[in-house]
Write a structure and sequence with these properties.
about 170 residues, Beta Polymerase, domain 2, five-stranded mixed beta sheet
Length: about 170
């Protein structure tokens, strides 16, 4: 169990050292309450370095999910360890005007299908994805079924705890 704590600490230290304002809202969380041990918001340029850091510490990618919010499409990347539960979430807010995000398929091959599904349902284009084509929907479908009408979208600030939204480093 100690090893998992050490790995989580190493990840948090590494994320805090990302250049500039690339990682913010970095916070340990109450696992019992939130189901995760730590979370942070990333700028697009920090996603791949952060994923490589997690991989180097032995974390695997559980899943990638998306939510259509007032501020844009929120991508949530969930990571964990096999030998000790230490869930970490990296979040990336993709602006609706430019629905692109870096692909993690080159770091975690399992991201391939998750990203293709998000492309299908939300229209996010994952740059440098090896096979970005529809996974579940017809190729010629011209709509994104999980995109909400503007009046149906909730704010990011209504969904996440405030400590995960503050632009500061611990």
């Amino acid at each position: 169990m100690k090893e998992g704590v050490d790995k989580l600490g190493a990840v948090l230290e590494g994320l805090a050292k990302l250049p500039g304002d690339q990682c913010w809202g970095l916070a340990r969380t109450d696992h019992q309450r939130h189901g995760i041990h730590a979370a942070c918001q990333l700028e697009a340029g920090a996603l791949i370095p952060a994923a490589r850091l997690l991989l180097a510490e032995g974390f695997f990618l559980e899943d990638v999910s998306a939510a259509d919010l007032s501020e844009g499409v929120l991508l949530s990347y969930h990571f964990d360890l096999y030998d000790a539960c230490r869930r970490v979430v990296l979040r990336l807010l993709v602006p609706r005007e430019r629905l692109t995000a870096p692909s993690l398929a080159g770091v975690y091959t399992g991201a391939d299908w998750h990203e293709r599904e998000i492309f299908d349902f939300f229209g996010v284009i994952f740059t440098e994805h090896p096979n970005l084509k529809p996974l579940l929907l017809p190729d010629d479908l011209d709509q994104r079924p999980l995109n909400k009408r503007p009046e149906e979208r909730r704010s990011l600030y209504a969904l996440l705890p405030q400590e995960q939204l503050v632009r500061s480093k611990p």
